[in-house]
Amino acid sequence: MTTHNPYLVLLYYQFVAIEDPIAFASEQRQLCQSLGLVGRIIVADEGINGTVAGPSAACEAYMDAMHDDFRFANMPFKIDGAATLPFKRLSVRVKEEIVAMRPPVPVSPANRSGERLSPQQFYTEIAHGDVVILDGRNDYEYDVGHFRGAIRPEVRYFRQFPEWLETQFPVDKDQRILTYCTGGIRCEKLTAYMIEQGYTNVAQLDGGIITYGQDDAVRGRGFDGKCYVFDERLVVPVNQQEEVIVGRCHHCGEPCDRFINCAYDPCHYQHLCCEKCDEAHAGCCSSICKALQAEFMQSAQ
Questions:
Q1: DSSP 71
Q2: Among 6, 52, 109, 169, which has the highest number of CB atoms less than 10 A from its own CB?
Q3: For the purposes of burial, counting CB atoms within 10 Å of the CB of 174, is it exposed (0-12), middle (13-18) or buried (19 or more)?
Q4: DSSP H helical segments within 12-138, as ranges?
Q5: pLDDT tier, 2 (very low <50, low <70, confident <90, very high otherwise)
Q6: What's the pLDDT tens digit per position in 242-262?
Q7: By the 8 A CB rule, do 82 and 233 touch?
Q8: Which residue range is the domain that position 279 belongs to?
Q9: Is the domain of 224 the same as that of 274?
Q10: Active site residues
């Protein structure tokens, strides 16, 4: 990938057995520190999930080191450029899952998940129209950008999907269902779970929205708005042919794709907010938080 930006951002994951997650996490920490990379890496006995950033040469060295490990020899990296580093530090953590779903029945995406569709195949199917498109992300991610006609999941956290599917997803289990997410990892686990629950015709966008937006053939067609990312950039463009703002300001309802965190720290609610409302509401999500923040600032003086 060619880029005029001084830094690269790598998004990647692999479902593969890790015998000693603690030792492997330590190796990852040492590797990234030696290369000067920052970002967030999650390790579990089911694999690795990471986003790291740094100078081009450091990122290339990291990818080479990972591909030298037989467990990750074929692991794809989603690569994007960045003008500034989107992380302040490096975090490497060991967790029970590399993407937290906590399904009521065990699933193994490494063994079975939904059919993988290339960006061109995914676009062909959504253009045909006789499919159900399911956003495999959280509600606020959908609100700032999504595929046209996609179902918005009423979930704030990915772990809420099993209950939502059971109680609020009115789709026949034999119907053709296409799922998508940011980089592909959530769809791996989501489709694996759906198959366990009896869905028979489930597919996933291979590589996620990031790969779809970078694909030279589709160029992000059919996706409106921007893609939420879990770093300091917050949102990135997807559709290279037309820019449509689908997000709405939390306060005034005007078109907006600008996220802020509520200035009242105990709340810290992340919401879409235009610059005008940001100033009018002092960076807060509600009049209650605005009053509490003003009271806090006054007491701190």
A1: G
A2: 52
A3: exposed
A4: 21-35, 56-67, 119-128
A5: very low
A6: 889 999 999 999 999 999 999
A7: yes
A8: 259-300
A9: no
A10: 181
Which residues contact residue 69 at a Cβ distance below 8 angstroms, ignoring those fewer than 6 apart? none
Give the model confidence (pLDDT) of 193-216 as tens digits: 999 999 999 999 999 999 999 999
Q: What is the spatial distance between Cα 63 and Cα 175, in angstroms, rounded to a whole number?
A: 39
Q: What is the pLDDT of residue 1?
A: 47
Which runs of consecutive H residues, i.e. helices, occur in the chain?
A: 21-35, 56-67, 119-128, 139-144, 161-168, 185-196, 208-214, 275-280, 287-300
- Do 129 and 81 fall into the same domain? no
95-137 residue pLDDT tens = 999 999 999 988 999 999 999 999 999 999 999 889 999 999 9
77 and 129 share one domain? no
pTM, to two decimals: 0.91
Is the same domain home to 197 and 284? Answer: no
Residue 167 falls inside a structural domain: yes
| Of 60, 94, 128, the domain-final residue | 94
CATH number at residue 204: 3.40.250.10
